[in-house]
Design brief:
Blueprint lengths: L7 E6 L3 H10 L4 E5 L5 H16 L3 E6 L7 H16 L3 E4 L7 E4 L3 E5 L12 E6 L1 H11 L10
Parallel strand pairs: 2-3, 3-4
Antiparallel strand pairs: 1-7, 2-5, 5-6, 6-7
Helix pairs in contact: 2-3
């Protein structure tokens, strides 16, 4: 028999995701991980004011995506510009070959997982599950291998 964990979750689609996601990341105080294989410049540009505020507060931000070279020419240019902008803001951008995960983890407690490309979605039919659980978030961080990118540097 499985023990009951203290986990709260809810579902969002492309219409309802952004409102809750923005609330969550505005409250971030230590870390934000976003895994999004595709990055559109316009979407990243929308997030610049929020990312700037988070970085000013000392929030560690890690973005894991595909290398822009994996995209066709038009999309490659958008991805390169978006990555450059993120790096200028002090975001740690990682590249994973054939990356396809869509995940966000906020303060190692709240996480989203599903089919929505967080840094590129525009007009699509997607789903994301939001879960609040420090235990499950930590399990996810270890599973995807990003623990080392969240260690504090003194």
């Amino acid at each position: 028999m499985f023990g009951r964990r203290n986990v709260a979750s809810s579902l969002f689609d492309q219409e309802t995701f952004d409102q809750q996601f923005m609330k969550d990341i505005k409250r971030a105080h230590s870390s934000l991980i976003i895994e999004s294989p595709f990055i559109r410049f316009n979407r990243v540009n929308q997030l610049v004011p929020l990312i700037t505020k988070l970085r000013q507060r000392g929030v560690k931000i890690v973005i894991n995506t595909r290398n822009p070279e994996e995209h066709d020419q038009e999309y490659r240019l958008q991805a390169e510009c978006a990555v450059g902008l993120l790096q200028e803001l002090g975001v740690n951008v990682l590249f994973t070959v054939k990356h396809h995960r869509k995940i966000a983890i906020i303060d190692r407690t709240v996480f989203y997982e599903g089919s929505l490309n967080i840094l590129s979605y525009y007009d699509s039919c997607e789903i994301m599950r939001r879960t609040v659980s420090a235990v499950e978030a930590e399990t996810l961080i270890k599973f995807i291998g990003l623990s080392r990118y969240l260690t504090k540097v003194s």
